[in-house]
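Onboarding guide, step 5: your first structure request.
Type a short instruction followed by the sequence, for example:

Predict the 3D structure of this protein.
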Amino acid sequence: MSDIALSRIAHLLKVEDDLVKIPELRQQFIREKASIDVKLSSTTQQQIDSLMTNISKLNDASSRINSIKGNITRINQIYDESITNIKDYATIKKMSSVNQYLNQVENLYQDIRSYSNILAKLNKKIEAEYQQLNEDLSYPLPNIISIHFEYNRVRNFSDYLETFSNQLSDDLKAFVNKVIKMTKTTIRLFDELLKEMIISLTEAVKDDNVQLVYKLVKIIEFEANEDLKFTLMENLGINQGNGDFKTIDYVNFRGSKRNYKKFFYIKLEECLDDTFNDCIKHYSSDPMQVYEGGLDWLEDELRFVFQRLNPMLPSNWDVDSFFQNVYYNRLHKYTMDVINTDPPAEDLMKILNYDTYYGKFLVALQNLDTDDDKSKRKSVIKKEQKSIIGEELKNSVLEDYLKVITSKSDEWTDNLIKMESENFVQRSIPPDTYHYSQQIEDEDVNDQLITVDITSDVYVLPDFNSALTMLKGQADVAADSGYSKILAGVLENFSKCYIKRIINFQKLIEDEIEKYMSIYSNEGCLIKESKAKRLFRSGKSNTSKTPQDFENMTPEELAQISQPALIEYLAALGNTFEINTDRLSDKFLPEYQEKVHSAYQNRLIQAIEETNNPSTELNAQILRAIVDIIVNDLYPELSKLFTKSWYEDGQNLTSDQTTGAARIAETIAEYMGELRSYTTYDIYSLTFNILLDSFISDYIRIGYENILHGDGKKIDPKAVKKYKSFSEGINRDVTLIYGKLQPLFTRKDTAYLMSLQAIELLGDLGMCDEPMTIIPQIWEHDILPLFYYCPIEYVRGLCLCRKDMDKRQVNQLCEQLEIIQKDYQSKVEPPSMPIATLNDFTFKD
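The system replies with structure tokens like these:
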């Protein structure tokens, strides 16, 4: 019994109780055995049938072979009889020869007659293909194979005429020479086309024009095989030129080898020579620049050839080896010529440094080849060729020099950060001023865009030029040394240090704003939660740290926590990084880009671009901090919004009193007026826009929360007294604020004051009759066109503040508003510069 069967039985009989299953299992095994016997019998019968069929076929094949052998014997017999028994065999043979000759003459007559037309058409095809390829390297040469076929036919015909012209009379020989002369033009044109394909090889592959490669390979391989056949026939003593002139098939006739494989390498070498010589001419004024980034293109070309071009070509072509050897020979000759001019020591060091680099590059290039079939191939670079001056030299002077530069730069940056941090925190001296010229866009009286030149003395940090002065000094030294990688390394290290300074300032701003708000924060006067929550919170024990008594501190004690002039220093910091970042991109980068090879330009660009986002983030943090300080000063007045005092504001004021809105507008105007005097226009404009967005959003939010959780009065659309009208109070505030702030904007930027309509619309929303009908209309026709991304919360909060609306109505209305907004946004494209004032509006209900 097999092991499999025993294993199966052991699996089925594990315990003593399983023994009762033995009869059942026996019947099951019998059934399975019967099934297997049937299948085995059927399979065996099929195999026997198949074997008998094959034997029958083999017998038939054997019979047919015997019949064929008999027929061949009969054919041989008939042939022998036809030769020996036919009378006048010689005469028949001569007649056949004459007939063949007449046919050959007829064919020659027809071909010679149409030859000039054929050549003219072929020449046009070749010229058209050449022009297309010359203008567009991605052109796939769809006609080149057919052109090559036609070219071979005419050239074979020309070879035929030329070979057998010696057998002709002088007159005919002169005629044949004219035909051959016409063919030379076609040969020249085809060779020019083939040359263009060869010199375009690498660039075409870069453009993914692999069709050019494959078609070129097909042509060269075909010509090489034909040349090989010609050579073999010559070696065997079988030369077509020794045959009968009248019987040779001139369509496939070759009079000599055409050597297009050799032509390929000759033209490719000429192309590589021209490329290398162009590089030499480009740096003719300073030969040392050839070694200072001027040969990066050569390395890229070899790498490209090795990785992409070579795998597309037959392995026996060894194109990678050919490229390397040609460039090595040119570089070796050029280097020897330079050395023979007795260059100074520093130039010789540059050559030696590049020599080491080039040798390592070639070794790395060889390691890129992971093809198993090529891994056993002999290295294409001889040992003595690894050095372009004949020997291996290792020199790390430049690398060491770069390390020295970067280490000193890091040390200097750390000292600068320490000094900048101390100045920013202590603020013991006023910021420096910098005479800054800038161009801004404005509008004339006809609302046409104009450019205005403005100059102002803006605040900057003390010694704000220090970082760029240090960078320029290092970059000049690196550029003078001629080593692009050193200049790139200097700039990349500067970028790292620049970002390090930005990160430090971001932390300083957080700390300084936190300290400032710990003393001067006015958020305590705002209502941020419901009365029930405040009552519940007031009943708990206060385990927090006892706050400091800032009100009883002296100015000196407060200054120990937060020094004055924070806004001025924030503005100076923003101006400093805006000006320096612009100078890096607009002046520094273009100046030094011209001093490096194109391969390093991207590194310079990337190094500068890496500073842009951190600088932008820093300035955004600065603007947010300035806005927070200004809005914080507005909280005491904002805390009175929509309360009884706000409704009565402006009634019975004495001559030296002002309304709350007037005090808000005056505070904003005072801050922004001062800011305009010492910041760049971009910072001033952005700050004002952010301030307006923040102020308007806070105005609405605080007003809602005052009504919902504080002393604010529910909006009564039925209010009779004018001074108790909500819309009158809103219009009063908007008018005062707009009138006070409008002079602080340019004519063009005044448009941003339209965002005040977010407050103005509260009057219509709060006082309209039939709110379930009117508010959706205001939402669709007034709010969404101006505030495209306005959240529903803006209207929901106002509705909750209305005396005549309950939460059920508010929820129902909000659902309707949401449907309107989705429909509106599906039909109307967002404006190119939407007003973002209400985008993130929220309140606590």
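Each response can be followed by summary notes, for example: Strands lie at 432-443, 449-460.
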